[in-house]
Amino acid sequence: MRSIDINCDMGEGFGNYRTVDDKALLPWITSANLACGFHAGDPSVMKEAVQLCVAAGVRIGAHPGLPDLQGFGRRQMSISAREAYDMTVYQIGALYGFVVAEGVLLQHVKPHGALYHMATHNKDVAEAIVNAVYKVNPDLYIMAPAYSEMFHAAERLGLRIAKEAFADRAYQEDGRLVPRDYPGAVIHDTEQAAEQAVRIIQTETVTTLNGLSLQIEADTLCIHGDHDRALPILRAIRIRLDQEGIQVASLS
Amino acid sequence: MRSIDINCDMGEGFGNYRTVDDKALLPWITSANLACGFHAGDPSVMKEAVQLCVAAGVRIGAHPGLPDLQGFGRRQMSISAREAYDMTVYQIGALYGFVVAEGVLLQHVKPHGALYHMATHNKDVAEAIVNAVYKVNPDLYIMAPAYSEMFHAAERLGLRIAKEAFADRAYQEDGRLVPRDYPGAVIHDTEQAAEQAVRIIQTETVTTLNGLSLQIEADTLCIHGDHDRALPILRAIRIRLDQEGIQVASLS
Amino acid sequence: MRSIDINCDMGEGFGNYRTVDDKALLPWITSANLACGFHAGDPSVMKEAVQLCVAAGVRIGAHPGLPDLQGFGRRQMSISAREAYDMTVYQIGALYGFVVAEGVLLQHVKPHGALYHMATHNKDVAEAIVNAVYKVNPDLYIMAPAYSEMFHAAERLGLRIAKEAFADRAYQEDGRLVPRDYPGAVIHDTEQAAEQAVRIIQTETVTTLNGLSLQIEADTLCIHGDHDRALPILRAIRIRLDQEGIQVASLS
Amino acid sequence: MRSIDINCDMGEGFGNYRTVDDKALLPWITSANLACGFHAGDPSVMKEAVQLCVAAGVRIGAHPGLPDLQGFGRRQMSISAREAYDMTVYQIGALYGFVVAEGVLLQHVKPHGALYHMATHNKDVAEAIVNAVYKVNPDLYIMAPAYSEMFHAAERLGLRIAKEAFADRAYQEDGRLVPRDYPGAVIHDTEQAAEQAVRIIQTETVTTLNGLSLQIEADTLCIHGDHDRALPILRAIRIRLDQEGIQVASLS
């Protein structure tokens, strides 16, 4: 029986600010990527997010980002590989504090926003991030798109990899996501997202925006929680996966 | 043979900014309290500080502070006990990341500045901080003045305590330090500081600013690194302790 | 014909975060207090808020707060009077940049949250803030409760004062607001708030939570925008003021 | 009689942190570029810097930077032109507060670090920054290298320009500075820097690192204060300019 993890970004509030209703999404996912205070999240937001995940039985991962709260970690910064290592160690550690305080284990790490993109395309940054994960805890998974620099760096190091695919985003022919500001980049239709999810799992292919078939492997599906279609899409995917006899389970 | 730990605050730079020359002080101490990014310290500063400590054989502790870089964590903030818990867990965790990445163990926690003062006098904040330390790692020491709220809270919880005394600061009759802005509060004379250190260790008493004798117990002596007399004072203390046959060793 | 100003806090988002829908509230008020980047607001949020105010014909004031985004400027900090002066000058200036860039004038200053409370009760901080306003622009109004330290400091200096009263908050007998966490502190009933507004303007008195009559003068009514009753309360007040023939107009 | 302005970055401390001794440099310059709180500077640092400049008779300019205290504003960030406008308006305004409070006028604006580089090479960012300056105060000067995008944008808009050249940095053939990490990029020899200064002013040419002669115009010479040769270089330049009968005076 095929099995897939479903991950979602969470704990992305700060101070009095909140974005999405994490509680509504938690029943539909198996892994949560929690912001660690740099692009979003503060100690109180993080503790609450960890406690919600523990109560919901959802596995927890660190979601380190660039030090840019105003830009939500989505603005590229010319950081060095050394700085990427340092900020990744810091943020994994900070989240680890809450995870161990609640008596659970950290499952994975997934860089956020511009840091994720740098780790996908920049070999030095990818190696720095993967090395940071390994040094803090060699049992952690890194979530990475197959064939990304981050994927290769993790393979070379022997770090556990959860190959990530996207159900609610359109793909280019080169395997990358269509940029967010491009028409058709974000899939809002619930059935289309569910169809893409099932297709990726069953056939290890996805249809690109241009209509081509692209090979793709996935251990985890990413669903973006920060648009109002997130919940209906998650529900539709879970129903379709259930119909197809595909199990939804965390990585470990 | 009596033994004492000597601790000093370190890693208090940020970005391009540096304060004291940590490298010069490290040979003279056995425990370092490293800033964790809130009142000072950033990921790169923290990593470098951890590596310096490891190279010098100095044990490492977390030095969590209030989220106030501009005020260097010295301005009181009306945080709740819950917020004190949250920010302590976060900062211990963040430093833990670097400590474990370098293959060593975290030894202790010592709150910084205004957070230390709140933990000394406010029972709720003291319990929150002590509980945070315990939840992250019950084997850690908390550095606390004997008879402070933090000391009592640690005793009740069963957390390891390193009773802290000060060689370079004058005491009031009630066991508290004379506030920094008061004449005679900071001891600049090296022999006087060394004398106070030896007296505390050998007689478990200290002479207050008013000339009274105050009972005091100490497992660790704090030396403030942020004034230009720090190095001569440390040297003088080490020489006197050596003469008196008092061993200087970390807590564990 | 009696006239009153109605002020509301606005521009309290940060980065991707938003709190209330400023656009919905603007048609009902005459003065807006805009966050200046310390407790909320960033340059982009501020520019947008200024442009919305200009489009709506609402007068603009600076709403300086403590440097505590996480605590939304509501946590007391032990800042010195000098620091209060410095952070007030900075924040007024920063907002002034956007105001002058849009071709309008700054009307007033009203401290936010914990800084407002300190300015109400602490003479040194009150004088520092009032002095900061005067030094940047002696034509600005300061919004202050009558009989507060800030009011007296402004009187001594000769700074223009807009005496502020609250339609949606209950009063204590000593003229202060009932603390937020106290039952009955916040008035959610639209008619009750409208009644309190009219009573303050027409009789210069308000009924305290204990049922006593308290003398009160008001040039401006503050309505809190950060609860879901804000819009209905504003509508109810405007309708009642209209019925009573009371004009709603900005300070200048 | 030829006249030249000499500018230097100042007020680059934060909280307890300081970098260079501004007081030592002030007697040798005529214009100071003051950090505005994003890459360095906080309200108290800024006020002190403004007061020092006023006391020394040195003209004041805003030195806006990217919101990156940790990276000292030297790490490129992919900000939009709109964000460049917003952060420039904010920072000029913030400094304006202190300048007007001390009873003087703001003279100029000079972007810092990575923002300066973006304004030199990126037309959209250059226009946004120049427009921000103009909107806040059309009488301000912008300091810009001749032939940079910022220079052209200011020309198109009709903003006053102070053409900037560097006495302590080597030039490439294309008119740009040799990058800092390149051998020979920074001129440490006092006589060589003084020679370059005189040559630029008298001949409107500079010798590049490759030994070629490059045409260059200058209204202001930038001296970097953040290395230990700053003071001897400034002294040497002032002595040489005096010998050559070149007057040193601010822009206005």
Walk me through this protein's architecture.
Four copies of one chain form a homotetramer. Chain A has 252 residues and is α/β, with parallel strands linked by helices. Chain A is 39% helix and 18% strand. Chain A has eight helices and ten strands. In chain A, helix 2 (43-56) crosses helix 3 (81-101) and helix 3 (81-101) runs parallel beside helix 5 (123-136). The interface between A and B is medium-sized, with 27 and 27 residues.
Portion of residues within helices of chain A: 25-40%
Structural class by helix and strand composition of chain A:
alpha/beta
The neighbouring-strand order within the major sheet of chain A is 1-2-3-4-5-6-9
Q: Helical stretch count of chain A?
A: 8
Rounded mean pLDDT score of chain A = 96
Largest sheet of chain A, described in full? Answer: 7 strands, parallel, barrel
Task: Please identify the oligomeric state.
Answer: homotetramer
| Largest interface (CB < 8 Å) | A-B, 27 and 27 residues
SSE run of chain A: EHEHEHEHHEHEHEEEHE
Low-pLDDT regions of chain A:
none
Q: Name the overall outline of chain A.
A: globular
Radius of gyration of chain A: 17 Å
Alpha-carbon distance between the two ends of chain A? 16 Å
- Give the strand content of chain A: 15-25%
Number of strands of chain A: 10
